[in-house]
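As a warm-up, study this chain.
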Amino acid sequence: MISEKNLNFFKKLVSAPSPSGFEAPAQKVVKEYLSGVADDISGDLNGNLIAFKKGSGKLKVMVVGHADEIGMMVNYIDESGYLYVKTLGGFDPNLLPGLRLDIYHNGKAIRGVIGRKPVHMMRGGDEGAKLKIEDLWIDIGAKNKEDALTKVSIGDIITYHSEIEMLSDDLIMTKATDNKAGVYVASAVMQELAKKKIKANYYAVSSVGEETTMKGAATSSYQIDPDIAIAVDVTFTSDIPGADKRVYGDVSLGKGPTIALGAALHPAMNQRLLDLAKKHNIPVQIELAPGRTGTDADAIHARRGGTATMVVSIPNRYMHSPNEIISLNDLDNTVKLITEFIKSLDDKVDLSR
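Now compare it with the structure written out below.
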């Protein structure tokens, strides 16, 4: 079961506003959690945070989660004081009308609500039209453009406004599980290993920019040059009405993390994860990533001379919404699995495919 300390860390992490490219608040939370735990904590010009625990051997293993969440930026303010945006990451515009947002201006959160033309005012074929982001606006209660400019500026970052809630003893709902969950895992593994002697050199990376550029994984992996890398992210569940498991596979909340199999991923290291899961009675699920994985692994596996790369994911219901749901047991079991994996490594490990 996840400890109270770790649960508080997770809650602080998902609450820290960190749209893609603007991750500093989340990185501050991670640094505070790992202070005194890692042998060294460093950063780079892109904003990555890299924590290091020295092993007795030469093998280097990197576990990375991305600290950025999807967000927006103020792009235009019209004469009536309504805001229009550009997105940081992927959104479904049809999900957005009526949602509350936080606009960050000079360190202060300004509340706004997403508006669109009411259905009662639509005529002809407008009712079924697929929305575009430019069809929506943000209302901050401004009287006009001049009033709006006293509260916000072009370029201000925006996140969902959403409270953390427990839906059950196990299921937690937050606005930014994608992918504060991966950052949590990389950090919690470092905490688990803090007082243990290990042979592999362990790097826990809280990367930046995954939702937009993947720059963080590219530069941190180039700097570390790991032999082995695990990208920890979230993945879609198929345990919802209407999901076609013939297309999306069989992934559910509460049944453990997923291990991805596919062309970019290392079969021998994946088998090692599966064997360790069986040995330690850790539930896992399988998903397929035949080509690109859509995670930081895509920026890592072919870096320099190549890296033995895996993707381990926490099932996430309602991804990229203000109410993403995961299982705390899945989160905890991911930490257990990766901790056991790192403990099992030494310089004799066979990295051939």
